[in-house]
Request: fold
Amino acid sequence: MRQIRTATFVSLDGVIQAPGGPDEDPRGGFRFGGWVWPFFDEAAGGLMGRAMGEDYDLLLGRRTYEIFAAYWPHQEGEIARTFNAVNKYVAAGSDTPLDWPHSHRLEGDLAGAVQRLKTSPGRDLLIQGSSEVIHALLAHDLIDQMTLLTFPIVLGRGRRLFDETSRPRSWTLTGGETSPAGVVVGTYRRGGDVATGRFGEDDPSPAERARRERWATGA
Reply:
């Protein structure tokens, strides 16, 4: 079965909107487009290459697809050659032209289409950008691995990696690196159910019992 992986630029406060440039995605009045650039040196580029891994096809949302399709066919280098050659599976309606070679439209319900794609023969599926695709797949527990490149910046607003539809799930850290500019890379594999516990004594004090009772009423 194919694995679904992400390689995502994210701020300390979880924003993933418009990391690449000021004109990338100004929705909601977002004014920090290109926030990755000051930290993206040769070391960070190496981290990104390792985060993406090898032998994959791309799984993209409409906006990320249109950004990539307008950029990568006109570039050179290893990433450009790979992106231009692999299959691109796109969550987009019929009004979005898929002119980039090897592009395929996902039909119908996104989660169902991706589940069918996972069980078909082929390479792993790598998600770049595509926050709405990530949200939908996290809600259906379909992402197997997340690699987060966390940049030392707080943006305050913008589209975020996780939202309240994400299915509760533990994740296991399988590797990590840090660049001299402070970019922290963590790779996580999907784990089990969320485990909980308790700090403190099993026999609470009268004050603690009173607090629990008061808070249970919404106080």
The CA atoms of residues 37 and 116 lie 37 Å apart. The first helix runs from residue 42 to 52. The radius of gyration is 20 Å. The mean pLDDT is 92.
